[in-house]
Amino acid sequence: MMLWQRLVASIPYTRTSQPYLIDTYAPQVTRAYIESRLAGVPRYAETVSKPKPLRITKLSSAVEKAPVGRCASVDDPESDETCPLDDNMTLSQQLDQFSIIGRCDYSSTCELIISLFDQSFNQLQSTLQQMVSLGPAAFLSPNPPFSPEQLHSIRLEENRLTWLVYMIGALLNNRSTSSSGSLVDSDQLDGGLIASVMRLLQFGDVCLNLILQLLQQDAQLSNPNVASVLIHISSGAIIRLELAIITFLEKFRKIYIGDNISRASRMYQSLSDLVGISDETTILKVFVSKVLLNLRYWSDHEVVLEPTLKLFGELASSFTAMKKLLTLDDVKFMLANHTPTNFRFLSTTSSSSLTRYRSEFYAYLARLMLVTLSGIGSDDNRPFLDFLAPLTVVANNLISNLLLSENCSISPEEARSNVIGLARDLAGVAFSLNTMAAFQHFLDWFYPSLFSLFSRALEFWPYDPHVTCPILKLLAEIANNRNDRLKFESTLPMGYLLLAEMTKVLNDYGPRLIAFFGQISEDNVYERKVKPLRRYLDALRITLNEKYANFAVFGLVGDNSFEKCVKLSTDMLLCVTDAELKGFIKLSKAYFALLEVLTQSHMEFLCSLDSSVLRRFFNAIVIGVESLDGLVAWSACSCLDSILTHVYKLLYPVSSPINGTSNGINQNGNGMLNNHGESKYPIFVPSPPSSLPTSEIAQAARQRLTACITRGVPIKGCCSALAIWFDRTEAGNTNLKKDFLRHSPDGGVSEFTVTSRQLMITFLASFMNEECKNQWSSGFPIIIEHGFPMYFSNLQRSILNALSPQHRPELEGIFGKLMDGVEDNLFAKNRDRFTQNVSTFRHALMEFMKKMSVKLVDDQQATNATYDTNETFSLRSILLFSAASL
């Protein structure tokens, strides 16, 4: 298949007057592939369907264990994947190849597929009609009175139709590669293929509703599971067919449904003649009807639920498409009736694997609701409250039982399931409400009762990750200032209230979580520690980083909750071990994202802590810089840049007319005077005259300024002295110099020196790596220029001495490019210059290593080397060896 795919794909690029034999043989290959797939169906028609959700990668592990050149599902007779339709990887590859070959003589391909499709469809239709005529008892019986021939026919034809539907979808998806577009009208041929699937889709919906009506005739079944009945009859082949139909609809949507599709008219003309579908609105009705049917009756089966929700999300991916969807009755039904009665996966009895899809479902519904709100104005919240009505019932029930009543009328397990479901649902809603007006409607509904509810839930189930993770994810989403949706009107104090609620919940829950981490065994680290810790770190980062309230105001009014939250952030980061940082990428991303916020905005606070804290963060940054994940390495470099910038400013203070006594400024209780006794600034008045009333907040600010000036604390100005960490700045800088930057009395180097040298080696080694994922580190020149210029020179000299003499001048020139033009300042222009130098340095190094064969100079050095001296080695190896010898 791969050979013929490449041969056919090369036709448009071949210029010759000779006839193409490919045009003769490619249709034969297409026919052989189609007929061979259908001929092989009887071998696995009776096997149970075992397709897996996209999020499950069981096949990948099987492939890793299989010998090279073998596929576990195809070559291994003992593999449980006996049906090629269940092997998504191989199936997708084959269909991509078939779609190119089949377009070579497209009219012949379409004619063959439609003919085979009609045969299987007519046989399936006839057999199902015979079975339905037996009545509801036949479907409810443990031993249904269907003949073996009927059951075999159902399973056989459903598998054959599955193959044909997959092939039709693949041909539609690859229409742009057609080599015969000038000979036939591809859109009309596409219409014929689409019409065949539409007939099958319509018949399947009618058949499902008919069986549902038969089952509802039994008084003992209040909510019959029609999907289970169909699976029992078909031995699971119906699941394969459902997946094929969803895949086809997605391919069809991508090619023929959209704002910029201009070629659909000819396809709709063909479709109208065959099945009566003449426009995009009618097609959307078919799509949404199928989505609703699957969500209602197939939602117990994750393998069908997942792609169905994905299709729903793609349909609601643009504003124009959503406006069209909102005119459909099925969409209106979903917006008004999203209850467990109508959608099984919303039930509290659903498995945990199904509840994860609740957020996605509600995100799509809220996206549609956002379009509705945009058309009625920001003042009318009735449609939004109507949309939230089912969730309001659940929330009020939980509030009544968990907050207001001493005796809970529902079982603990039911309360737990309802909390999990509500948190997931609201996280989806909050995710999609990206406008200020819509999100304010949401907060009006949410605040403050639901903050109290979820805080109480964290008290009841503090160590259950199935409860805590959804709640923490919801809180992080609510505090996320996406698209400035938390930019409230100036008359609303909502920003401060939201921040106060977030810090309260996090401060109450964090210490309990830290105490629990010490009791977790290694077997449960991921489930019990990593997952909730990652969610908690995300919630902390968003709370501390989203600028919808002024943090310093909390201190002025005597509220230390924000400062406690920052302190708690460092405590939570210290809970992460080096092994966990290296072993869990998602945790590493959350760790360094939070550390980046702390180092950028709260460096004064970090320096005021024990030196072991900063030492721990420095060591973590070394791990992050070496990470193979680009985002982790980037965040770690950003943290390093912030720390080194702070150290640089501390060691090399910039001269300023208001910078302490460096310019002759003396401070006293009445103000700031220069050496001549002249006032450069207005006189500071601790307490204004009684005729000038002062608010409580302003009075608190004056008291803080008075305390600073009385103690003789150097300040740059009154406003600067009111910063949130101003009272820690002096102690923090002293602590940093004393415990981290100062060399030990016995002559040993400081911890900062050791770590910085390690970082220097790490950066240089990464620059020499061909697959370097991160070339950015503005703090790197600070290390070289001001931290350890002598060490860098010695390291460079050691590397040059390891080369043969004829290679040294060129490499010395390459090293000279690294700091070329880099000045002694922290200006953005200077940082950008160094970043450009890094790119030039890496490019020159790569070229040097490609054309040179680098060897050690003498046998003595080779004897002491840690690498194989019989082969050439890279500069990176020399660097590491030289660093170890210094």
From TrEMBL:
Residue ranges of every copy of the Exportin-7/Ran-binding protein 17 TPR repeats domain listed in the record: 81-352
GO-annotated molecular function: nuclear export signal receptor activity
GO biological process assignments: protein export from nucleus
Any single Gene Ontology cellular-component annotation: cytoplasm
Keyword Transport applies: yes
Pfam families, alphabetized: TPR_XPO7 (PF25795)
Major subcellular site: cytoplasm
Classification via InterPro entries: TPR_XPO7/RBP17, XPO4/7-like
Places the protein is found: Cytoplasm; Nucleus
Keywords assigned by UniProt, alphabetized: Cytoplasm, Nucleus, Protein transport, Transport
PANTHER family named in the record: EXPORTIN 4,7-RELATED, EXPORTIN-7 ISOFORM X1
Family statement drawn from the similarity comment of this UniProt entry: Belongs to the exportin family.
Full protein name: Exportin-7/Ran-binding protein 17 TPR repeats domain-containing protein
Organism: Rodentolepis nana
Organism classification: Eukaryota, Metazoa, Spiralia, Lophotrochozoa, Platyhelminthes
